[in-house]
Hints:
The chain is mainly alpha-helical. The protein is built from two helices and no strands. The radius of gyration is 20 Å and the shape is flat. The chain starts with 16 loop residues before the first helix and ends with a helix. The model has no long low-confidence stretch (mean pLDDT 81).
Amino acid sequence: MDVGLENVTEEDSKDYVGIRMADLLVGLISRLMQSLKISLIGNYKEGEIKKTFLDSDWFALNQRQLDLY
Length: 69
């Protein structure tokens, strides 16, 4: 029964646009998750739970970011 599996080879992202796009997407998601973690850290040592809001800088976009969207 052939399921269509093939061996994977390592390639350079300079030669393949799809690999480059995947690298960029993973980098963007990774940085976003790290920034969210830093922004949403609360002080739970005393057992106090309170709402944590993102800083307003999260929503301030410059022209370059707007052009990207």
